Protein: RNA pseudouridylate synthase
Amino acid sequence: MQTKWTFEAPVPQMMDGQSLRNLLHQHWLLPKHLIFSLRSNKRVLVNGHYLPVNFPVHDDDKIEMTFLPADFRNPFPNVIPDSAANLAILYEDHNLIVVNKRRGDKTHPNQPGEVGATINHLAAYLAPQDTLPYMIHRLDQETSGAILFAKNPVVVPPLVANLAAKRIQRTYLAWVTGTEIPDQGTIKLPIGRDPQDQRKRKVNGVAAVPALTHYQAIQKLAGDTLLAIQLATGRTHQIRVHFAAIGHPLVGDPLYAPDDKQPFLLLHSWKIILPLPFSEKAITVTAPLPPHFTNFRSSLLG
Structure:
């Protein structure tokens, strides 16, 4: 495994005249403990020289940062590599990777020694690069599509912060039952645990917390509706719970629409738009529809 991670980036124009501390913390979203390590060990340089972090930086100054494993609580997560033969990569650079997760694969193992999850396959793929996958977010086992992982511990905090602030935008596609649903709308219903089933969540359940879901209808066919969905919050099973609660459960949902005859959950992480760490560039990554989605639409068309 790598023994250090070095990053070089210019100061963006919008941070001209701001302190180095503000650049690192407010703009590049590094947590205070990492900034403390960089400052204490003089591992942050401006144009090749150390400056105190309260000094101003200027447009196109070159910032160099070097991080060590000791800067992180868990610099090398224990992930058992599994076969990467069926792994589909949607985007990759030095810092992060977006995978097209297969329906039926877990995002990560639930038990010690367990393999077969997406992160296990990714660990095998990254092994020749002498790096590991770092978890940023999760998808339910029956959900397919784009999922983001970091390739080093440095970019984990900025990615997680951008995800929490919704600067990383994720759009899902889902088929729901019924066509009476409005063409667009917002569902604002708190979600908590289901006291009758530990696997499930429910509206106004135990320890409910606010949850907000935005949607827009794309197509209505033969009694079902294809939606594009964006989450303003990230609660467990949020999409599935919200649409079941308004009387339009997801087609094929084994927990919230168990009488449905469609064998697979029709929920797909379709598109991710994300700002790249230490960069002013944003990328859009789209995951192609899986066969169970296209087959279902074909069946509706007859």
